[in-house]
From TrEMBL:
PANTHER family: 2-OXOGLUTARATE (2OG) AND FE(II)-DEPENDENT OXYGENASE SUPERFAMILY PROTEIN-RELATED. InterPro entries: IPNS-like_FE2OG_OXY, IPNS-like_sf, Iron_ascorbate_oxido_reductase, Oxoglu/Fe-dep_dioxygenase_dom. It comes from the Bacteria. GO terms for molecular function: 2-oxoglutarate oxygenase/decarboxylase (ethylene-forming) activity; metal ion binding. Pathway: Alkene biosynthesis; ethylene biosynthesis via 2-oxoglutarate. PROSITE patterns: FE2OG_OXY. Coiled coil: none annotated. Its EC number is 1.13.12.19, 1.14.20.7. GO terms for biological process: ethylene biosynthetic process. The keyword Endoplasmic reticulum does not apply. This is 2-oxoglutarate-dependent ethylene/succinate-forming enzyme. Transmembrane segments: none annotated. Residues 87-193 form the Fe2OG dioxygenase domain.
């Protein structure tokens, strides 16, 4: 994905980043397989596709267990999400934030946003910069240690749970000027369900104090809407 092409929802400046995508490896459903683009084979790097696939599948499995815990928290069956995420449209996205060569004006490495998907798993990034916004509006550093994962709730889960689980607003700030010459690398795993999953607010998350906050929509429709807003696909 070319540099500067993606911008956060509602922001005109492109983010200062470039990235690769590893997508779903559908091995048991010919119809579903046609829904996703083929993963691109990189012949120049011997281990690239193998390591990408292994990383994808390990993070996918980890995310599945996290969603099981969240399902229990939402008073759902423990395995509620399992069928929705099997062969889901999840993405492993290694990102490179290149050295900054000139005054970026209003552009940042990643402008403030909520992720589109159910949950995001972030392995320790190489280089600081990630911040999350607290409920009181203050931004705090969110730096995972090598043996830790940062886990964000995304907008799809926030809709489905009527905001009982709030989408984590986060951003990647530019480094101080003396570190402009350094790259940053990060590797989020975005857990997405299959496109036909209904994100309609769960009945169990609606009551008098917390009326239904979101319109009914499927994951596929919601993703499409958001990709248009991010400048990644055309209407
Ligand atoms: O670079 C990071 O650590 C986070 C990237 C991110 O938030 C995103 O790509 O959605
Ligand atoms: Fe994000």
């Amino acid at each position: 994905m070319s540099f500067g092409k993606e911008s956060a929802k509602g922001k005109k400046e492109g983010d200062l980043k470039e990235f690769w995508h590893f997508g779903q490896y559908v091995e048991d459903d010919a119809e579903r397989r046609k829904e996703y683009p083929e993963n691109v084979e990189v012949k120049e790097l011997d281990q690239f596709n193998k390591v990408g696939k292994e990383t994808y599948q390990m993070l996918e499995k980890t995310a599945k267990y996290v969603l099981r815990a969240l399902a229990l928290y939402l008073n759902l069956e423990e395995t509620y999400f399992d069928n929705y995420i099997h062969n889901g449209n999840s993405i492993l996205r290694p990102i490179h934030y290149p050295p900054i060569k000139q005054e970026p004006k209003n552009a940042v490495r990643a402008a403030a946003h909520g992720d589109i998907n159910l949950i995001t798993l972030l392995m320790g990034a190489q280089g600081r910069g990630l911040q999350v916004q607290r409920n009181d509006g203050e931004w705090i550093d969110a730096i995972a240690e090598p043996d830790e994962l940062m886990i964000n709730v995304g907008d799809m889960l926030s809709r489905h749970s009527n905001n009982k689980l709030k989408s984590t607003i986060h951003r990647v700030i530019n480094p101080p000027r003396e570190l402009w010459g350094t790259s940053r690398y990060s590797m989020p795993f975005f857990m997405h369900p299959v496109s036909e999953m209904k994100l309609d607010v769960l009945e169990s998350c609606i009551d008098e104090d917390n009326p239904k906050q979101f319109e009914d929509i499927t994951a596929g429709e919601f993703l499409n809407e958001r990709l248009i807003e991010l400048g990644l696909i055309k209407k």
